[in-house]
């Protein structure tokens, strides 16, 4: 028997490790940029937000079928029915496509490619609804560790809590409140 719970546990563990590394890096980055590289807080925050945004959107940019269908259909900002018509044009043959012996992938798309783009475009309203969440999230990974670095974080005479680890308390509070 393949897959099952063993595969699910593996996927959960990999996702946990990935998030642990991502959040750890992004929360420690504000301290590194401001203390070691001596950037201003504004410049460091801008750099971190750019890094988080690019790393979040980068997987979508790798969808070559999305970009090549949008180019083929000459998509503009029109209501959804017009967008659907433009996308449907990307899979219709015209005189140039019919007369050529080889299929140009930048001019003619498959039905599957067009339907995939339609599904991705339907996610845009959901992404737009999440903007405020990402604004709050960017505050957590930038200003919260920077503010924590100014606090007295010592426990006993020899142990000091790293400022970025204070983000863990947010997760603990959320788990305890539910």
From TrEMBL:
Transmembrane segments annotated in the record for this chain: 7-30, 50-71, 119-139
Native organism: Stylosanthes scabra
UniProt name for this protein: Uncharacterized protein
Keyword annotations: Membrane, Transmembrane, Transmembrane helix
Membrane topology reported for the UniProt record: Multi-pass membrane protein
Compartment list: Membrane
Coiled-coil blocks: none
Main location: membrane
Family annotation (InterPro entries): MFS_trans_sf, POT_fam
Pfam families, per the entry: PTR2
Family: Belongs to the major facilitator superfamily. Proton-dependent oligopeptide transporter (POT/PTR) (TC 2.A.17) family.
């Amino acid at each position: 028997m393949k897959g099952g719970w063993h595969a699910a546990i593996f996927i959960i563990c990999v996702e946990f490790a990935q998030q642990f590394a991502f959040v750890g890096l992004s929360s420690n980055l504000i301290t590194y940029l401001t203390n070691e590289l001596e950037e201003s807080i504004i410049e460091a925050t801008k750099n971190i937000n750019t890094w988080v945004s690019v790393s979040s959107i980068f997987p979508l940019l790798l969808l070559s079928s999305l970009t090549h269908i949008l180019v083929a259909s000459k998509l503009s900002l029109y209501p959804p029915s017009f967008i659907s018509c433009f996308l449907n044009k990307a899979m219709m043959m015209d005189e140039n496509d019919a007369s050529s012996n080889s299929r140009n992938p930048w001019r003619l798309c498959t039905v599957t490619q067009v339907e995939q783009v339609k599904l991705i475009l339907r996610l845009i309203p959901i992404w737009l609804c999440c903007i405020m969440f990402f604004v709050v999230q960017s505050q957590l990974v930038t200003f919260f560790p920077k503010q924590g670095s100014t606090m007295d974080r010592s426990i006993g005479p020899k142990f000091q809590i790293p400022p970025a680890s204070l983000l863990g308390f947010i997760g603990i509070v959320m788990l305890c409140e539910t």
